Predict the structure.
Amino acid sequence: MSVELSLGIRNQTQVVEFDFLGFSGILYGHTYLALAFLAIYLVTVLGNLMIFTMIQLKSSLHTPMYYFLSHLSCLDICFSSVTVPKMVVNFLLQQQTISYNQCMAQMFFLISFMGAEGALLGVMAYDRYAAICKPLHYSRLVNTKVCTVLAFATWVWGFLDSALHTALSTRLDFCGVNQINHIFCDLPPLMKMACSDTHINELVLHILGLLFGGGPLLFIISSYVFILSSILKIQSTTGKRKAFSTCASHLSVVFIYYGNGLLNYQRPSAGNSLATGTLISIMYCVITPMLNPIIYSLRNQEVKGALKKAMEIWRPSKHHHSLC
């Protein structure tokens, strides 16, 4: 009898497509929403691509801090590309669906880039710590080889975290239920839909969440405790201001990334509507990748200077106008 019941459940798990419910309350204006999300995506890609290209071409930006910033730009492009294009296509087709295989792939890359970005922010905190707290040893602590290893490790960190979660998720059974209370495929809503036992998935989620998510955050906080202590010891006001300015952009990105991440994954389920969850998810996976290049462009004098010089190169000269 138990064998027959088990086989019956298995026969009901042939879910080949999922429906997103995050935008289910929106009945009209899908084309306008598609254009809005497409515009945000283009700004995200072009902004981060501009930062990446400028760092590669400008010799004065060939430093560890900007090397890590170029990786952050790549991650933001990848992070946004995992979710936003699919949203645009779904709005244009007026159907919020995704196939099972696409859902697993989307979740895998989403968790990968998310974990890699958190680790990279930790690496960038280490760079600021070495520059401010250990200036005499900076060239040894953060040399080219160290930068390459740390950058490579952040990508491996994210993909390892994601591989473990995705491998466990593919073992879940979905007994005919295919509606996801979300706007993209993510681990918590998928576990809620599953009709099989999810205790192992939940245990691994908490353990890896503390390790892969909480670990970098704890390292960032510890680094800035030492950084703040070193800055307060600086005698000159100009020196303190300069030290603070080198950390301002990074701290802003950290607050936005972890703030939106905590809201997205740690908010209490009670009293939160689907609309609220959708708005928070949009802030996390759509808006945040767009803000990072803007923050570094506005708050970093070297980046602003490089942007001005790039614009001057492309701007037609007065002599050229007179000839025309």
Summary: The longest helix spans residues 100-133. The chain has one domain: 16-316. Confidence is low (pLDDT under 50) at residues 1-11, 317-324. The CA atoms of residues 81 and 273 lie 26 Å apart.
